Amino acid sequence: MQGRGLPFRVATLLTGLLECLGFAGVLFGWTSLVFVFKKQHYFEELCEPDAGSLGNATGLDDCRAQDEQFSLIFTLASFMNNFMTFPMGYIFDRFKTTVARLIAIFLYTSATLTIAFTSTDTAVLLFLAMPMLAVGGILFLITNLQIGNLFGKHRSTIITMYNGAFDSSSAVFLIIKLLYDRASIKASFIFISVCSAWHVGRTLLLMPRGHIPYPLPADYRYGLCSEDSPQEEDKKAVGSKKLELQSEEFLSPKKETPGQQQAPSSFWSHAFSQRFAWHVVWLSVIQLWHYLFIGTLNSLLNNLASKDSALVSTYTNAFAVTQFFGVLCAPWNGLLMDRLKHKYQEEAKKTGAPAEAAALRSAVPSLALTSLLCLGFAVCASVPVLPLQYATFILQVVSRSFLYGCNAAFLTLAFPSEHFGKLFGLVMALSAVVSLLQFPLFTLIKGPLQDDPLYVNLMLVLLTLLTFIHPFRVDRECQRKASPAGQAPEVLTAGCGESFTPWRATVRTDGGLHCLVCAGHPGAFTLLRLERRWVVKGEGVRDGLGEMGESLEHARGLTPHPGEH
What we know:
Elements lengths: L5 H19 L5 H10 L24 H20 L1 H32 L9 H20 L9 H14 L2 H8 L6 H10 L1 H10 L24 H15 L22 H5 L2 H31 L4 H15 L2 H26 L3 H7 L1 H20 L6 H26 L5 H16 L2 H9 L7 H13 L2 H14 L8 E6 L4 E6 L1 E3 L2 E6 L6 E6 L2 E6 L10 H7 L3 E2 L5
Antiparallel strand pairs: 1-2, 1-7, 3-4, 4-5, 5-6
Helix pairs in contact: 1-5, 1-6, 2-7, 2-12, 3-5, 3-12, 3-18, 3-19, 4-5, 4-8, 4-9, 4-18, 6-14, 6-17, 7-13, 12-13, 12-16, 12-17, 12-18, 12-19, 12-20, 12-21, 13-17, 14-15, 14-17, 15-21, 16-17, 16-20, 16-21
């Protein structure tokens, strides 16, 4: 089937959405699963006999050692979820889609089977199973994001929607919790394991063996019935790079693309830039808040609810339900950026500002809004009032759904596209290292602070204020680039004299006056650009026209020559 038809691509899109929604990010429903594990008495043997004497009949609801084990498991799993993005991305780039997905299926199925057959005596296996579940899930997401390439101008919307589905998949563990009285945790995870057959079928029937190129060639084929090998698919991908230069999303006439440099730039020059460093700080601080909140929520609710198991269950369910709405919140962030990008680029055309600065500027409101949402979430989470946690849950899911979409979008706008994969993996890996702080912070709260997280929360709220520096710096940088003094010289070409001899001249900015000088020619003249109008001055020119009139008309269609200054 040539071009693979719209119905086939829609089937790929919808099954990919279902895969992300039902499997990819289930780890972040950890709070619901902890509630079930505690009912099954996992790690209860670590508790002191009087550890929960103030609790209910079991006397074990507030066992510090038990909570530490669950917190440590989530810390390791969430760390692997981010840190392994870098090597998993390399595997995907190097070995293509089929191999990457088979690895994901193996890891995911091994994890779910391990969880299914764990018991109170073998609970330690969760330290192995949950990180495997996280890595398998993130690899599902990575291989599905390329599906956006099948839908051209809707590509960004689909990518954002998939990230939202990844967030919403945490509701799966809520379903397991609600079914716990009727179906054992073993039965639930065996069912999830059996679904691996569906993953395999989708890999063979609805996914490419290589990569889905962008822009998409007209004769692109994929799936089991495709005659293209991964190598042939890659040849088409190389061919599509020529189309990419004509793509409206990447290049508009006479404008630079976002993140594009006139001269080749190294990966490390961007990795060590202040722009990237502040982005790492921005992502790491906000992500640390989310991970610490999810990993310690069960303990927090137990304290605020005075260890009332029914009340804790109610709030746990409420939190899990709000997570499902991540798939609905995420696209709004992409819509905001797309609208602002169009608006700022239209303004840039009128003012002559660089397209790069206009595109990058569209990320500023999204960066600032994400920081503001996180600040609101952090403040609510720091107030020890149980009913207020409903507001905390809502702010948390909106903030988290904005966070990762904004992260990916900013990297595409701020850095060259050829370095996107490496920079994305690097920022996720570095933020994963920072996320390891959640366990010592949890230990600090449970130990010296005696279950009072106030000082830790105040410290993290202050750190959250630092994240506003990032959008402020980006905005200042965009303003500096948009100002005449901050614009880089352009090299233009036009005809000189009656013979239209090609010549090149450099745009110089001097008090807002752009001057083009044609020297070394009998009909030498100067073009002055003042208030967006070209005026000719030169020897033998009468009233700005004369015998140079044709040269002026030619100069009005000046075209850039990149790389020459």
